[in-house]
């Protein structure tokens, strides 16, 4: 069947294939585009051959393309949409809207498309361009699990002044009973199924599951009213470190730590209503709270291995007292003492002649003072004043983290964590294989299963601790660029300022933010 002909050639259709038979060479290729627009059902498949045939007379017809159907529907791979293609001229479409509409309905039925069929204005269709004719309903993922924890009072000291006395208060010890509610998880919910264009149901994914983070030695999970509830195994003090909830045993001391109590060493948290007398020590795994308004004078050692320390009054160290915490230290004022905090060291009013060491040292920026001694931080030192008018030597030092060394440690710990995670997968797989046949196991096999469960729990706990350490190291690295010493009011002459390897001694009163700019200390 001849589709088109002129003096130069004729175009022939046979069995849905398109051929050209050249009669005379010289037809311009660019003019062939006009013929294609007049016959949109022609789809060229060999452009180079067409160009050659237009310039050569041949005795036979040469295949150059295919003959498209007038109307076709193309279905997406995921069966969620179908597109309509009309390979006719605009004029043809406008003159044959009803017949095209009827043909579309037949094609939809032939392709079993029953869902999400769209109303299409055929007169607005662009020739040879895809027009969406059917759209499936996608599945909707279910709600993620929701986790809520017991809300603990913020550990932030409050400085109040009534004209007669200064108060340094904060909510520190939060005590609960055995079985107390610590948190809960509302489970991830199923989603809403979808429907493809064939009317077939598409399963919906569940919401993302989340895990309660807690110390398994002091808390446990239980299913209650369709929720996973976190409860305390023991009565004690609730603590939260790096996003993990735990409960520490609590030792309350009504009076002082001294001759009547002896030195205190406790696997948990300690709250002391009075003080720690000269020469005595308190060592605890958890938090330590010393609430006597007179503070501490001449105590030997106050140390929290894993928690924070709060001293409502001040410290008169008499050059004897060491206060050390893995977390934060909160104290009203410090005289002649040595304080070491793994995180932040918070001082309400002043530090006099003391040695301070922490990730950040934060003295009240309105009227706090660091006079004499040495303050060494990894990230930030903040105070209102430093030194005094007598030019007492005072050292403010930022020892920045070594990035290269920290990255090596992070990589090493990350490799350990990956190995532990692989071990956990293997252990969980072993347990999963055994659980369906647990009723057939001998006592010896049950004992071996219990050992495997204990090993899994222990590995999980170690992995969680390692993960927290990695996150803390990464956080420390991010804060390296923020290293600064901020004196809001007066830094007196005699103040030594050092950040990294750059240092100077002030010779005049100044203030501001001291940091490294363009490789130099901006003092």
UniProtKB/TrEMBL annotation:
Transmembrane segments: none annotated. One of its GO terms (molecular function) is hydrolase activity. Residues 446-483 form a coiled coil. Residues 71-241 form the Flagellar Assembly Protein A N-terminal region domain. InterPro entries: FapA, FapA_b_solenoid, FapA_N. Keywords: Coiled coil, Hydrolase. PANTHER family: POLYMERASE-RELATED, RNA-BINDING PROTEIN KHPB N-TERMINAL DOMAIN-CONTAINING PROTEIN. This is Predicted polymerase, most protein contain PALM domain, HD hydrolase domain and Zn-ribbon domain. It comes from Solibacillus silvestris (strain StLB046) (Bacillus silvestris).
